[in-house]
Structures are given as C-alpha cells and as structure tokens.
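Design job #97: recover the sequence.
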C-alpha cells in the first residue's frame, strides 16, 4: 500500500489535519483513500495535491473547500493552494488497510 511521505514537521501537521476530511460518499478519509498525493508548505502556503478517482466527481468543490479549511487550521499556514493532480492517476495501492477494511464493511471490494 502506498503512503504519502512529508519532508517537514509543518508538512506533517497539514497532512494530519487533512486526515480529518471524510469522503462524502465512503466511510474513509481522503488521506486513507489515497486522494491526497502531495503536501508541501513553503512561505506559509500549503500546497496540496488532490487526486480524484474520476474526472466527473460531483464533490470536487466541496473537497477542495474542506482541504483549505483543514490546512488553514494548522499554525503557521496562512494560505492554501489546492491542485488537482490529473497527471497522477488515483491508484488502489495508495489506499490504506484501514480504508480497505472500512470499505469492505459496506460491501466495497478493492
């Protein structure tokens, strides 16, 4: 299973805050579903890369807003840029075991 790595304590703090964002359709966080593929903080701006499993996701604006709110809760972050990372396709192997178990409980197999 893939796992996003961070390079600074501020990056890690933003990633931890993003773990609180639940997918609106599934019982797992965006981080656990492998939808957060990049987090980097520079000059008090959090740069977050969001990878959606489909191009027509109806919740994309909601997810972007939630990412901004979560990252702004981190002390030291003053601005947030969210980018959809379409050049990096969503991958099943990026889903954490915790999310796999939660999905299995509702009948979704990966």
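Job complete. Output follows.
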């Amino acid at each position: 299973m893939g796992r996003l790595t961070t390079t600074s304590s501020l990056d890690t703090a933003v990633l931890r805050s993003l773990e609180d964002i639940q997918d609106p359709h599934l019982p797992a966080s965006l981080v656990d579903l492998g939808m957060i593929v990049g987090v980097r903080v520079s000059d008090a701006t959090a740069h977050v890369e969001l990878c959606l499993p489909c191009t027509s996701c109806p919740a994309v604006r909601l997810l972007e807003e939630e990412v901004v709110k979560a990252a702004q809760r981190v002390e030291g972050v003053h601005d947030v840029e969210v980018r959809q990372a379409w050049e990096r396709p969503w991958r099943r192997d990026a889903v954490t075991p915790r999310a796999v178990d939660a999905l299995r409980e509702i009948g979704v197999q990966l």
